[in-house]
Design goal:
- There is one protein chain.
- With 110 residues, the chain is mainly alpha-helical.
- It has helices at residues 6-30, 42-62, 69-88, 92-95, 104-108, and strands spanning 2-3, 67-68.
- 68% of the residues lie in helices and 4% in strands.
- Strands 1-2 form a two-stranded antiparallel ribbon.
- It is elongated and about 50 Å long.
């Protein structure tokens, strides 16, 4: 399917970003005690929404004119995964949030 408008491209990319984040939260739920530390902290929900929105911005940056729906979905889904992999591999000193609390580095590791 070819998407003619930027709005349609962004919407499909948002769906791709949402799919990647749903997969991320599902992977966390499969770990023993995986969701316990994250589901009650607002920073992780804000991060999740930010990742979906970042995926939605990619067609604006990458595309001009028409594009396939699959390409837009891929841009939206790939962006959160790439950012998650980058953050998960940050040096420990940069990724530290505080003692006892789950870290963003752990959150992004799946």
């Amino acid at each position: 399917m070819i998407l003619q408008t930027l709005l349609a491209q962004v919407m499909v990319a948002l769906i791709g970003g949402l799919a990647a984040e749903l997969l991320h939260w599902y992977a966390l739920s499969r770990k023993p005690g995986g969701l316990k530390g994250y589901r009650t902290h607002a920073v992780y929900w804000v991060t999740t929404v930010g990742m979906v929105l970042l995926g939605g911005v990619m067609p604006v940056l990458y595309l001009q004119g028409t594009a396939s729906a699959l390409l837009c979905f891929h841009l939206g889904a790939a962006t959160p995964v790439i950012v998650q992999k980058l953050v998960a591999n940050l040096p420990t000193a940069v990724a530290q949030q505080g003692a006892g609390a789950p870290t963003l580095r752990e959150f992004f590791r799946w």
